[in-house]
Design goal:
alpha/beta; Transcription Regulator spoIIAA; 6-stranded parallel sheet; disordered N terminus
Length: 384
């Protein structure tokens, strides 16, 4: 369904059948946290990033990792790959922030619900949104309530696709209806795994600049679920409120807790110890080397020595040029002696871009030491 405002935009968007342009930003301050890329960004910077994408009509695939993302990515490589593809990946879950602090990473919490609330309040100017999913009647209620409030954000359309499979929810009729609404933001609420994969698989067919799995955002707007009090959110205990509002969530949170304890014990603590023992000095960093080998269809980057946030500039430039070359990418890490969360985050951006553009990505000649580093950071999936 779409309201009158969406109908007014039909003429301008009826022909939209491809995604807005996108390109990898190797300048992003991204860190590997529990195997996922997470941007070190403030709430205001996140708003600015979204506003810029809308203003420039450039695609921003937004992901909001929390512990459910972590647990699901450990057992589902397609889900993990969808997060690698993100243009912006914000720490929605407080456990990711806590683990980042233990690791010494400058990650701030930026929840998807808070980001959406800021956009509704006009932080990025006047915007339009399309609600896809939610329980029956929720998207419609959210759309009507938002437009009735008359704020800076308007709803240009909504759809309840039912509870079918991803394939059943991925057809030209649905894409055309969404695109005809001409929304700046597409909010998908069909379950964490299904929603993230739906965006990842279908973003080429979607015209909205901002696409994301919005979780409970549609419920908050509709008023069917109340947001946690600010004091609980600041302390990271809003999950208690969510359980009160939606008791069925307790089993998911309990499963997430068990995974968190295991990751903290076997990844975070050993990772901190490894860093203390092996962290390179400024003199060591000067021994880092990067060689580039360009073929007709293959682009190889050979790293040797230690690579950390303190000497990443040459690597950022090399990855940028590799992306421009539009070839399959191979990383030779046989001579790599040390890598931190920032270097691994950079690799994740490259991996996601190659996947998104349907080009090859692989890590070859990974030494035992490199495999240990990847395992401690939870991103052993990079070597397949």
């Amino acid at each position: 369904m779409q309201d009158n405002q969406g109908k007014q935009k039909t003429e301008a968007t009826a022909e939209a059948d491809v995604a807005p342009p996108f390109s990898p930003d190797f300048g992003r301050a991204v860190y590997c946290v529990l195997g996922l890329p997470v941007d070190a960004i403030t709430p205001n910077q996140a708003v600015d990033r979204v506003a810029a994408s809308i203003r420039e009509r450039r695609r921003c695939f937004l992901s909001t990792p929390n512990m459910t993302f972590v647990t699901t990515s450990r057992v589902d490589l397609e889900f993990w790959d969808s997060i690698m593809r993100s243009d912006l990946s914000i720490a929605d879950g407080m456990p990711l922030v806590w683990m980042s602090r233990v690791l010494g990473l400058p990650i701030q919490r930026v929840t998807g619900s808070n980001l959406f609330a800021s956009l509704m309040e006009g932080a990025a100017g006047r915007l339009t949104v399309y609600f896809f999913g939610g329980s029956e009647g929720t998207a419609r209620a959210a759309c009507e309530r938002m437009n009735r409030l008359g704020g800076s954000m308007r709803c240009s359309g909504y759809d309840f696709p039912g509870y079918g499979s991803l394939e059943e929810m991925s057809n030209s009729r649905i894409f055309q209806q969404i695109n005809n609404a001409g929304a700046d933001i597409l909010t998908v609420s069909i379950g964490t795994k299904k929603g993230q994969l739906w965006v990842s698989r279908n973003e080429r067919n979607l015209a909205s600049p901002i696409v994301w799995y919005g979780g409970a955002a549609v419920n908050f707007v509709a008023g069917t679920v109340k947001r946690a009090p600010a004091v609980l959110s600041r302390c990271g205990f809003e999950w208690l409120w969510r359980i009160k509002e939606e008791p069925s969530l307790w089993s998911r949170y309990f499963a997430d807790l068990k995974v968190l304890v295991r990751l903290f014990t076997f990844h975070i603590i050993p990772c901190v110890a490894y860093r203390i023992i092996h962290r390179p000095t400024d003199v060591d960093l000067k021994t880092a080397r990067l060689e580039v080998f360009k073929g007709d269809v293959l682009y190889t980057l050979r790293f040797s020595g230690p690579w950390t946030e303190r000497n990443l500039d040459p690597a950022r430039e090399a990855f940028r040029r590799a992306a421009e070359d539009a070839a399959d990418l191979v990383l030779d890490l046989e001579g790599l002696t040390y890598a931190d969360a920032a270097f691994l985050g950079l690799i994740m951006i490259a991996c996601g871009y190659q996947s998104r553009t349907r080009r090859g990505f692989s890590i070859c000649s990974a030494s035992k030491n490199v495999r240990t580093i990847l395992r401690l950071h939870g991103c052993e999936f990079l070597v397949r």
